[in-house]
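note to self: the first set is below, dont mix up w the second
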Amino acid sequence: MKITDSEELGNIIRNRRKELKYTQAFLSEYTGLSVSFISDVERGKTTVEIGKVMQLISILGLDINIECNGNMINVGSITGHNSDDAVF
């Protein structure tokens, strides 16, 4: 599944939580994350801490796969270094 913004990610996390029949309060107790943080994630707030989001995703039994979309950036052309340096 391709996720294009934080709202989509939040919806996926919310749907998975509900699928597992977890309340935000239960998840908060279990993870140590605050209910307000979980709510922020589910609403797609863009300033949440990525490490905590990754923890939440893992606890909910979800995986993240990152794939190259074919748009490669040649770091050498950006930094002025030799084009043999690095390509991401």
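second set (the one i keep forgetting abt)
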Amino acid sequence: MFGRLRIKAAMALIAALAAMPAVAHADAIGGLFNTGVDGSGTPLGNGAAEIHSTLANAPGGATTSLRVATSANGYPVGYWSGDNNASA
């Protein structure tokens, strides 16, 4: 008896999941930018000041200003996406 109930419950769950849309949607968050881009989302040049991110804390004597690093610097650590409006 309990085996049949579990099967029915599992089948109901599968049917419910199958009826759900496969694509998710999220609204854009105004004022949120990728790093390394200007206000219109265009990639900034190598060494340009990062205008959307700040470094809150740094060791004594270190600067808290951030600079854009593009593929012009090479690929320093692991996988690096190409320079475009999604990854500058």
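remember for set 2: The chain has a mean pLDDT of 79.
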